[in-house]
Design goal:
This protein has 320 residues and is α+β, with helices and mostly antiparallel strands. The chain has 15 helices and eight strands.
């Protein structure tokens, strides 16, 4: 697909279309991101779209996802790339790959939609959030760090820790006259003093976990490309061998970092609450009950989890 240069005088700005089979809702992706505790580096604006800076082939690039249509049956999506220097074909291809992965544009939803025909609560969510697809994080390493930071603490406190982590370990880059934070690589994280993280209210254990997994990624013992080729249970088994990664964290990374279709982080308190509400339990479901309820959805449990999270977010906002 040929890139369109939006400014003929400056090849540091490129726009690419993002074809996708309907239904697809950019609105629901933005709604999810606007209230997700993992949305720290992304700027979500109803008019400007989703903005995020990534290092692509060693160069900071501002990527903007936007939609020119609110019709889920006729989506019109684009990714814009902005840089202080000329954008190469290689950077265009990598930016396009990020955009399609982030919005799950290459996963056809038709088989998922069929599941709603035999499950009334899921059908209701599919109708309410028509065209929504799971939104992935920028990298499996980022999803792993966010998951570790969020372990066993309230989401609001986890969000504060994520901002502190970025300020302490990440970069700040300038593009088009604006400054943007950039997620650090494992080598940058390893340079952080654990005592300094403790001063930011990171527990000693959590600081040790972050250092351990960062070292494993840096030296190749934790290789996400190799993990992505494994069947799901083997991938979970491999991840949980590393200090700081339990089953919930592993499932979260496979789902949001690597795009596995059939993960259900059943120990997640949000999913347990959603299951209890949606299926009339009158209480928070147990981890086993979440797995039992989602058993008929094999092959699409990551999508089911995402819809449950979205339902919980909407209910929480309505209650405010």
């Amino acid at each position: 697909m040929k890139a369109k240069v939006t400014d003929p005088m400056a090849r540091n700005r490129v726009t690419l279309p993002l074809p996708v089979d309907p239904p697809f809702s950019f609105r629901w992706a933005m709604e999810y991101l606007s209230s997700s505790p993992s949305t720290v580096l992304e700027n979500v604006d109803p008019h400007a779209g989703l903005q995020r800076v990534l290092y692509l082939h060693g160069r900071p690039v501002l990527l903007v996802l936007r939609s020119d249509s609110e019709d889920v049956e006729h989506p019109a999506l684009f990714v814009e790339m902005h840089s202080e220097r000329k954008i190469s074909r290689t950077i265009c291809d990598t930016g396009l790959h990020w955009a399609r992965n982030t919005l799950n544009l290459d996963q056809n939803p038709h088989d998922f939609l069929k599941l709603g025909k035999r499950d009334a609560p899921l059908r209701q969510l599919q109708e309410q959030f028509r065209g929504m697809r799971p939104v992935r994080l920028a990298s499996p390493y980022e999803s792993l760090i966010w998951a570790i930071i969020g372990q066993q603490i309230h989401v609001a406190f986890a969000r504060r820790l994520k901002y502190r982590f970025l300020e302490h370990c990440g970069d700040q880059v300038q593009i088009d006259g604006h400054r943007y934070p950039v997620f650090p690589g494992p080598e940058q994280v390893l340079r952080a003093d654990p005592q300094e993280l403790a001063a930011l209210q990171f527990s000693r254990q959590k600081s040790a976990y972050i250092a351990a997994v960062s070292a494993a990624v840096a030296d190749g013992r934790l290789n996400f490309e190799a993990i992505s080729a494994l069947p799901q249970e083997q991938a979970i088994s491999h991840l949980t061998k590393f200090r700081g990664i339990g089953r919930w964290t592993a499932e979260y990374v496979l789902m949001r970092g690597l795009g596995y279709l059939d993960c259900i982080p059943a120990a997640d308190i949000g999913l347990r609450k959603a299951a209890g509400e949606l299926y009339g339990l009158g209480r928070t479901a147990s981890e086993k009950e979440v797995r039992d309820i989602t058993e008929p959805f094999q092959g699409w449990r990551s999508w089911v989890a995402f819809y449950w999270w979205m339902a919980l977010q909407q209910n929480n906002q309505s209650a405010k």
